[in-house]
């Protein structure tokens, strides 16, 4: 794999760390600013909304400059947002810093996906995407636990300064390792938007929202689920999160490898297994060993779907991929937000902390149904194209008209 993918993975590591580390530092941040824990939770909500909004806007802006320069500019924005969070005198300023940092998230992964896919041969594209997203998954195993530990011992502001330094390191890596890339061929916004008239693009994004969202019905409420339902001590939750993160890393790499060989079968397997493991977790919580096995499996099967879903969008929008690729990254975060909301609804309704898993299983099963529908439509389209081509070949050519005949 090209070294340029390492630079993209470093950027992904920083983004993944800043996205999830606030969950571990909410009490410290809330106490410092004198706000409640639910109010501090807006730091996560604001970040997610910033990703959804920023992805299409900055992707369109990015279509006017070279992709390498745009990636460097996005990481610069990421650094600025994290520095602003670190020095924030009041909660509102920190929230603004979170939103500034989040604006870079969707466009970085969207444009980065195009760059990563362009660095390798066509049959290795999903593997290259997986390599970039490995930075995001490793962040959950290393970056988030370490960031939480540093924040709890040295102060949460130190954590955000360190994350900003990671962003600087990523900028330098992109500058040194990503090869010079010409400005993408100018495409009008209408041309980028035309990709969304393709039913296959819309189906792929719907699969992203439902399939990946299913994972977050579990992960959002993992701590109360493990302590109240499964009986783990609060100190054990950290190790369960590490196991979950390791599952994400393995699943992401396996998904990238096999999506290059058989994309749709990989989606069928990962989404089916995700639905099954999510449905099993409420039963597994009666046994700690079973729980410790199922939790990382959910992370593995959930992230095994990420490279094929992103590659599916790129394959369907080859002529104008920038906006669609970035919007699909926003779709991952939209799925996260919807999953957390639905999970909260069933808990508030009195069904218990394990109930969100059933919601997640239904979401994953719905994504599987959309995958089957997408493949069926693709076969029909290909069949009609074959019939038209065959008819054209079989039709007799009219004889030329000659003078005097």
Automatic annotation (TrEMBL):
Residues 4-382 form the Major facilitator superfamily (MFS) profile domain. It comes from the Bacteria. Its main location: membrane. It is a multi-pass membrane protein. This is MFS transporter. The keyword Cell membrane applies. The keyword Repeat does not apply. It is found in: Cell membrane. It comes from Streptomyces stramineus. Keywords: Cell membrane, Membrane, Transmembrane, Transmembrane helix. InterPro entries: MFS, MFS_dom, MFS_Efflux_Transporters, MFS_trans_sf. The chain crosses the membrane at residues 42-61, 73-93, 99-121, 128-146, 158-180, 201-224, 236-254, 266-283, 289-309, 330-352, 358-377.
């Amino acid at each position: 794999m090209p070294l340029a993918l390492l630079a993209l993975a470093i950027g992904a590591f920083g983004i993944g760390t800043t996205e999830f580390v606030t969950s571990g530092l909410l009490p410290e941040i809330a106490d410092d600013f004198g706000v409640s824990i639910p109010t501090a939770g807006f730091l996560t909500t604001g970040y997610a909304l910033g990703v959804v909004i920023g992805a299409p806007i900055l992707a369109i802006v990015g279509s006017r400059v070279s992709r390498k320069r745009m990636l460097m500019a996005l990481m610069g924005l990421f650094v600025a947002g994290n520095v602003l969070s670190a020095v924030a005198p009041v909660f509102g300023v920190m929230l603004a810093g979170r939103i500034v940092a989040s604006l870079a998230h969707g466009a970085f992964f969207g444009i980065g996906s195009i760059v990563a896919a362009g660095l390798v041969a066509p049959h290795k594209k999903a593997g290259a995407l997986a390599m970039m997203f490995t930075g995001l998954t490793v962040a959950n195993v290393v970056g988030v636990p370490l960031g939480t530990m540093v924040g709890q011992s040295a102060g949460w502001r130190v954590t955000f300064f360190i994350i900003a330094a990671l962003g600087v390191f990523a900028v330098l890596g992109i500058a040194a390792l990503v090869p010079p890339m010409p400005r993408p061929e100018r495409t009008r916004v209408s041309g980028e938007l035309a990709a969304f008239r393709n039913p296959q693009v819309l189906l792929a994004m719907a699969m992203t929202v439902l399939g990946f969202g299913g994972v977050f019905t579990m992960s959002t409420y993992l701590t109360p689920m493990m302590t109240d339902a499964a009986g783990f001590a609060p100190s054990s939750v950290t190790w369960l999160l590490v196991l979950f993160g390791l599952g994400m890393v393995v699943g992401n790499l396996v998904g990238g490898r096999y999506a290059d060989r058989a994309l749709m079968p990989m989606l069928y397997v990962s989404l089916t297994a995700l639905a099954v493991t999510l449905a099993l977790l409420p039963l597994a919580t009666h046994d700690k060993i079973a729980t410790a096995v199922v939790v990382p499996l959910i992370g593995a099967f959930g992230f095994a779907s990420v490279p094929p879903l992103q590659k599916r969008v790129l394959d369907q929008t080859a002529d104008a991929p920038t906006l669609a690729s970035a919007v699909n990254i926003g779709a991952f975060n939209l799925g996260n937000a919807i999953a957390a909301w639905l999970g909260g609804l069933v808990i508030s309704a009195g069904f218990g902390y394990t109930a969100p898993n059933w919601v997640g299983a239904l979401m994953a099963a719905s994504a599987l149904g959309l995958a089957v529908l997408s493949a069926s439509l693709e076969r029909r389209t290909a069949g009609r194209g074959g019939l038209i081509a065959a008819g054209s070949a079989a039709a007799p050519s009219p004889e030329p008209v000659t003078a005097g005949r």
